[in-house]
Design goal:
Length: 385
Amino acid sequence: MKIHEYQAKQLFRKYDVPVPQGDTSTDRQGVVDIADKLGLPVAVKAQIHAGGRGKGGGVKLARDRAEVEAAADAILGMTLVTKQTGPQGRLVKTVLIEKGVNIKKELYLSIIPDRETASITIVASQDGGMDIEEVAEKSPERIIKVPINPLIGIQGYHLRQVMFGLELDSVLMKSFGKILRSLYTLFVDYDCSMVEINPLIVTEENEVIALDAKVDIDSNALYRHPDIVEMHDPNEDDEAEAEAAKYNLNYINLDGNVGNMVNGAGLAMATMDIIKQAGAEPANFLDVGGGADAEMVENGFRIILSDPKVKAILVNIFGGILRCDVLAQGVVQAAGKVQLNVPVVVRMEGTNVEEGRRILAESGMSLINATDLADAARKIADIVS
Ligand code: ADP
Ligand code: MG
């Protein structure tokens, strides 16, 4: 689960990681009041669950009252488009107003789980700031990685590896080392899947401060973090994903145009792979689950159809606990309720497949039958190409 920058900074404060003073507001007067309290200059920052805000106009530095008002007017209510929001952007309802700081140097620091080394890995660079993606692409040697065995935990030599790698000034080592240890502890305590600070800055006064904050928490661990659950912002939810969650469907919205209806997460991933191999792109991941009933199938179908990106649907079901006849029933039910305006390719095998085929054939729906998964992928790719 993602949280906002201001919420991540609340966690940082709890772990004694220095962040600028600040507060949030949803209206212009609030922004002005907070700026008055903090003293100028201030940074006004859009709070959305996506990075790249600075480049998209979602972070502005204001040096006087007029600039504070202008920044509030420009950012509150804007649809912020960044590299991470997709072309539709995200509506900004809240801004964080924080004290403007004098930046001497911008570093990059993150902690992520690394499956390859089965470790918690610290990633750092002395070329932090808004162009870190370019650094990773053009000069990857400027990015250092220090894996930490979670059973051993963070040790002095890890800290030194990071700090020497960053060519950090020796006067900064004590405060930097403390921050690194605290962030590692936060990462473990909160079952994070990412903690990222870009930029982690060094000020003219040689203070190390987290200027940005991104924290992602493993949703499977939310039951033991009620304080994080409370940070959930429904404004950031994908509408279709939220709708799917209501029906216990495992649904993830993607960028392509082939809607997928599959039972089993493994089969759903294999289906996406084979679609891609055939030259098409999936519009979603949908695992209706092993124990799905006709109603769940119907809801899944309806959610896929509500996505305007979808130009064709591939139903790929391996009938086991979810029998083919139950699936067919669900598809027919859905088609009776919503306008089926895109071609549907069906590949079905397993329990009660004959009965399932009969139900679909007698439904009067115009479906395209596939003999196997490869055939289904070819047919769907032909339709959308
Ligand atoms: P994003 O990564 O989404 O673009 P950041 O929080 O990193 O957003 O802000 C973008 C840039 O704005 C930073 O790299 C920094 O240069 C500047 N900035 C952010 N907060 C402050 C602040 N409190 N004082 C001064 N400059 C800031
Ligand atoms: Mg940033």
